Amino acid sequence: MMPLGWAMSCVLFGGAAQAQDTADLAQELANPLAAIVSVPFQLNYDDNLGLTGQGSRTTLNLQPIIPFALDNGANIITRTIIPYVWQKDVIPGTSQSGFGDILASAWYSRTTEDNLTWGVGPAVRIPTFSDVSGETWAAGITGIVLKQTGPWTVGALANHLWDLESNPTTPTNATFFQPFVAYSTETAWTFSLQSESTYDWNAESWSVPVNASVSKLAIINGIPVNFMGGVGYWLESPDGGPDDWRFRLQVQFVFSKG
Predict the structure, then answer these.
(1) How far apart are alpha carbons 87 and 102 in whole angstroms?
(2) Which residue among 3, 90, 92, 132 is least packed, with the fewest CB closer than 10 Å?
(3) What is the model's pLDDT at position 4?
(4) Nearest CA-CA partner of 43 in 62, 59, 57
(5) pTM score, whole prediction
(6) Whether the Cβ atoms of residue 213 and residue 243 lie closer than 8 Å to each other
């Protein structure tokens, strides 16, 4: 029979090791180029839309992330954003819902010896032709650079999209820029601050929300699940765009490493 003291030591050290593994995974998830298969469901709420400022929009983003390891030590990281949108009174007295345009991105990614991670690749916007679609194909380039030092993750994501049609329904010439900083704790909490700024070169207008969020990684029936809640504020938006506060909830299911 195993001595009681030895058994208790095994339990304590085993629990400590699992807690450390969970904390390490929480920090890895702060890296958008982590070679981890995961499926986030992200719910966003924006208000004060439309020319009258009475509209609201709720968006549920399904964002599967699938990595592919290459023989040279690099990775291909793919992320597809599939939005479902409910909006009301953006056009006064009406409501619309449906799948919004899909954004598919892929990055060829490497990490340098000094722990700088970068990725570059194509981005394609696929129209769904629903009531909330821009009905225009667009494509461009996307890039990410970040560095993880201790509990900190600091970096930025950017893309630029152009429309691919000679007579587009929604002319597209837009730059997206997302600087971010995150701090992960030893108890698998992560505190994040980011902006999701877009500059429309055709309209010469900015959309600039700043978002703060808190997330907690938990193990449920053996599956890591990351729960996140956040709030944001629109510093600037075009005419008819959202204003004031915005809200975000996210559940991310983590399955395996690529």
Answers:
(1) 17
(2) 3
(3) 53
(4) 59
(5) 0.90
(6) no
